[in-house]
Amino acid sequence: MPTPTTEIPHELREDVETLWNFHRIDDPLCPVDVAIGLGSHDPSVAVYAAELYGRHLFPLIAFTGANAPTTVDRFPRGEAVHYREIAMDRGVPDSAILVEPKATNTAENFEFTRDLLRQHGTEVSIALILSRPYQQRRAYTTAKKLWPEVDFLCSAIQQPLADYVESIGDPKRVIDMLVGDTQRLTIYADAGYAIPQDIPADVEAAYNRLIAAGYDSRLIPTN
After folding, report:
1. What is the pTM of this model?
2. What is the arrangement of strands in the sheet containing 97-100, beginning at the earlier edge strand?
3. Dihedral sign, CA of 65, 66, 72, 74?
4. Distance in angstroms (rounded) separating the CA atoms of residues 65 and 63
5. CA-CA distance, 22 to 44, in Å (whole number)?
6. What digits encode the pLDDT tens for the residues 71-110?
7. H/E stretch holding 126
8. CB within 8 A of 101, min separation 6: which ones?
9. CA-to-CA distance for 9 and 17, rounded, in angstroms?
């Protein structure tokens, strides 16, 4: 039986790198009022949050997320609940963590976290969004639409694409998610759920080639 590969097919690498680089924002880090860790299948979000907390970049972390079909097996008690445990295992005190366990999409991540922080009495003028590396741009566009008075920075674990794919262990999942997030930038902005983003021509071309190559499982059906 062939051994599953964790490498991106050579003929697709340039196009995948194009989308990967476009979606990463990686703002310079500075002290913020709160970090918001977006739940997903990727535990590196919580690991990175703990690392940055240890560097005294924020006094509070809000982890947000319930479950999705892609996360229920890995995080059966909910994404935010498991992220909290991962962060605490890495030295973050329970008193520095808030858990928002109900959000099932990115818009709810920010809506519910905004409400939770208000209930907690936390004033937010600048926040750091922590997410999967390729979720940064979509997360930012959603956050600025729903919470425009806050200045948002974005960051994610600092890994090259090949190392990240190996850590996830599933190149197709990563490529499918990259393609899906690229589509969502336009669809969600058109629907009024996010601020618009210009899509460079090379990104659009790479996106279309990856769809043609069969990486379409995360696309939203359109007319």
Report:
1. 0.93
2. 97-100, 61-64, 34-38, 126-130, 151-155
3. positive
4. 7
5. 20
6. 878 788 899 999 999 999 999 999 999 999 999 999 999 9
7. strand 126-130
8. 65, 66, 78, 80, 81
9. 12
